[in-house]
Automatic annotation (TrEMBL):
PROSITE patterns given in the database record: FAD_FR
Organism: Tulasnella calospora MUT 4182
Entry-linked PANTHER family: FERRIC REDUCTASE TRANSMEMBRANE COMPONENT 3-RELATED (PTHR32361:SF9), FERRIC/CUPRIC REDUCTASE TRANSMEMBRANE COMPONENT (PTHR32361)
Domain named FAD-binding FR-type: residues: 371-493
Membrane association type: Multi-pass membrane protein
Pfam families to which the protein is assigned, alphabetical: FAD_binding_8, Ferric_reduct, NAD_binding_6
UniProt-recorded Gene Ontology molecular function terms: ferric-chelate reductase activity
UniProt name for this protein: FAD-binding FR-type domain-containing protein
Region (Disordered) residue spans: 1-28
Primary residence: membrane
Length: 734
């Protein structure tokens, strides 16, 4: 709202910008920095804070770069890529570590867990129990000091038959040599300090989506610094000018924190959704500062009776404030959550108006606007390179109440837990469906043996997702149901595998083992084939990504055990994380020895469409002597007769032995303690001990809070015994 007049007397009368009011030299001999310098120094201090937190991630970054000589770091997590050529796949096959040789078995294949598998020595000769992989059910658990007694390496190897101990010992040694180095997080290292656990606790205990104490401290420190700089060594009109400059100078930083391909996020090793909370807080304070700037000048002009003349003179100032106000008002949660399209359109219209108008209002703001446009341009260029216009296949999953989306062309380039943004080019989802980008977590892993592409499960919850489900459910095009809605393909596919096994048994030969998973070729058929996926509706979409993923350059395969919790459609995160962990173990590049997956749903029938995938994961684990996997499904709705009938009709007459159904919501204080104390803590320790427990969460805010409470309740001595406990969180509230 300040004037650009160079006449000192006139600017003093009107409250405009001039040499005497904007800074320069005061009436005393003391030199005071001008308002722009004060604001720039405050912005520079924020950059130093970002650099400080970025330095804390350097040890993990170096460990990630060192693992596989940095190839894994640059190969996944940045760009989605199409399937490799046949020559490239053949070259990779020669380099791939083969866990079990593709030799013919010495005995007939066994029908196990509803799928035909070749004889898996670790599955058939060893009894699985709740106390650890390969521990007989009759073995007792010694409790010392409230925890399970850790086994020695010799004791753990002794649980296996004599003819397998050498192989188990060799597998352990090879895995240890190729596994990534485990670098504890800063929070784990500082956990022993007084009051350190307090920072991870919620600031408002009864508020589901509230900030933690650590985030609240960051908010308060930033707000205090903002206020101090706004009023330091200035008064009157100077306060109004300083507040305006604080808004101008921080514009590039707040835009960088909110962009999808953020430079700040790159240096911190965090996705845009992990740093968006500070983008919102900065924007709110900047809007308050701009409001203070405008109201202050209006009061000043009214007192001097020049409000009409000054308001007419500063049209560009009103335009800049209108753009900023549009962003501030429509960013409120009531608009952001109820109408994202209104929020998004108000954002881009508002910041373009502000960035252009502010350059006419204050000439020196041109450089800050150009810096902001550079950041925006870089973000959109990256989005362009990350976007793929392709054909996807939609399949309605009635039991799950979701739509399965498969992108067969894109088969590599992402990490587990990352998400993509979809734009649909069809009028079935609305006239302007192409203008809406919707984020969904990827449920598959990169570079699978069968060439499976990106898999998404989209819950039918909002307007867009319901239209998507309706499009996938068009008569004659659904992959899982015919006209009367009966379940067709699942049992048929499993029955065909059973027939195949019987034919091979009659001929006296067994199926050849897949060189990556250790499964017969029939059992490694993609999930799409197993349950008839891929026969649904096709649609043109733009797939943009990947985004998000592990925080701070964390490598999940560097942890000894992983406790993964998924709520509802959050199972997409759980599936990708579990399969990636298993894949890394198969490649002998992982420290993981124990995986527990908890899935909380309302209806247990949601399990049916995913059962082939989960069965495949369970079978793959059965061929790995030093890895154990369990899945527990908690349901809150009564079991329907239809679901019971489907389960009984499965080959084998029920669910696989590693999949358990439990009624009611889980008590995560008990579940987390049991997983860490009675399972992870009992694993045999090598020379370097255990390398920590990773707790992954994907679901609503209330679910994440209950799991965090369970982790916070763990004893510090137990944490140190297992190498630390870290949380990776993907909630539905951003």
């Amino acid at each position: 709202m300040s004037s650009n007049s160079t006449n000192t007397n006139s600017t003093a009368a009107t409250g405009g910008t001039g040499p005497s009011s904007s800074g320069g030299k005061s009436s005393t001999s003391m030199v005071i920095p001008n308002n722009e310098t004060f604001a720039a120094l405050f912005g520079l201090s924020l950059l130093f804070v970002i650099v400080f937190f970025a330095v804390l991630t350097v040890p993990r970054l170096l460990a990630s770069l060192h693992h596989q000589r940095g190839k894994a770091f640059f190969r996944e997590g940045w760009l989605l890529k199409p399937k490799k050529s046949a020559a490239a796949r053949a070259k990779d096959a020669l380099r791939r570590s083969v866990f079990l040789p593709p030799a013919q078995p010495t005995r007939q294949p066994t029908l196990r867990r509803g799928l035909v598998t070749s004889p898996a020595p670790f599955a058939n000769d060893i009894d699985y129990s709740d106390e650890g992989h390969g521990v007989p059910a009759s073995a007792s658990v010694n409790i010392e000091g409230g925890g399970a007694r850790p086994m020695s390496v010799a004791e753990e190897e002794g649980k296996y038959p004599a003819h397998l101990r050498t192989l188990v010992r060799h597998h352990r040694e090879v895995r240890s040599a190729g596994a990534p180095a485990h670098v504890p997080s800063t929070s784990t290292i500082l956990r022993s300090l007084p009051f350190a656990p307090w920072f991870s606790r919620p600031f408002f205990p009864n508020h589901v989506d509230g900030a933690s104490n650590g985030q609240a401290c960051m908010y308060l420190l930033y707000a205090a610094g903002f206020i101090v700089v706004a009023f330091l060594m200035t008064s009157g009109t100077g306060n109004l000018k300083r507040s305006g400059w604080l808004v101008i100078v921080q514009t590039p930083l707040v835009v960088s924190l909110g962009s999808k391909n953020s430079l700040v996020g790159f240096f911190l090793g965090r996705g845009y959704e992990k740093i968006n909370f500070f983008h919102r807080w900065m924007g709110q304070l900047m809007f308050i500062a701009s409001l203070y700037h405008v109201i202050g000048y209006l009061i000043l002009w009214i007192r001097r009776n020049v409000e009409a003349r000054q308001s007419a003179t500063h049209i560009e100032a009103w335009a800049a404030f209108a753009g900023f106000a549009m962003i501030g008002v429509f960013s409120l949660p009531v608009f952001r959550r109820s109408s994202y399209r209104l929020f998004f359109n108000a954002h881009w219209i508002g910041y373009l108006t502000y960035l252009i108008a502010i350059c006419y209002h204050v000439e020196e703001a041109l450089y800050w606007s150009l810096a902001t446009f550079f950041i925006l341009g870089l973000d959109y260029i990256c989005r362009l390179f990350k976007s793929h216009f392709t054909t996807v296949t939609l399949t309605a999953l009635p039991d799950f109440g979701a739509t399965r989306i498969e992108v067969p062309r894109l088969t590599r380039g992402w990490k587990a837990g990352q998400h993509v943004r979809l734009r649909a080019f069809t009028f079935k989802l609305g006239l302007f469906a192409f203008a809406e980008a919707h984020p969904f977590t990827i449920a598959s892993v990169s570079e699978t043996r069968n060439g499976q592409g990106v898999i998404l499960y989209v819950k039918s919850a909002g307007d867009w997702t319901k239209k998507l489900y309706d499009a996938a459910s068009e008569p004659g095009k659904g992959g899982l149901e015919n006209g009367n809605g009966t379940f067709l393909n699942f049992n048929a596919s499993l029955a065909s595998l059973e027939t195949l096994g019987r034919e091979e048994a009659a001929e006296g030969k067994g199926p050849a083992l897949d060189d990556e998973k250790g499964l017969p070729a029939a059992a490694t058929t993609s999930t799409r084939t197993l349950v008839g996926f891929g026969s649904g509706t096709t649609m043109k979409m733009v797939v943009e990504g990947p985004y998000g993923g592990p925080c701070g350059h964390m490598m999940r395969s560097s942890f000894t055990s992983s406790f993964v919790v998924a709520g509802g459609s959050g199972i997409t995160y759980g599936l990708s994380v579990v399969e990636e962990l298993i894949r890394d173990v198969e490649k002998l590049q992982s420290r993981t020895r124990l995986i527990g997956l908890y899935w909380i749903v309302t209806d247990p029938a949601c399990l049916i469409p995913l059962l082939p995938t989960l069965t495949s994961l369970s079978n793959r684990v059965s061929y790995i002597p030093t890895l154990r996997f369990t899945l527990t499904v908690h349901y809150t709705r009564a079991v329907s007769p239809a679901f019971s009938a489907k389960v009984k009709s499965l080959p084998g007459g029920g669910l696989p032995r590693d999949i358990h159904l439990e009624p009611g919501r889980p008590n995560f204080k008990t579940a987390v303690e049991d997983f860490v104390k009675l399972k992870t803590n009992r694993l045999a320790r090598g020379s370097d001990g255990l390398s920590g427990v990773l707790v992954g969460i994907c679901g609503p805010g209330a679910l994440a809070r209950s799991v965090r409470e369970g982790v916070d309740a763990l004893d510090d001595d137990l944490r140190r015994s297992v190498g630390g406990v870290e949380i990776e969180e993907e909630t539905f509230n951003w």
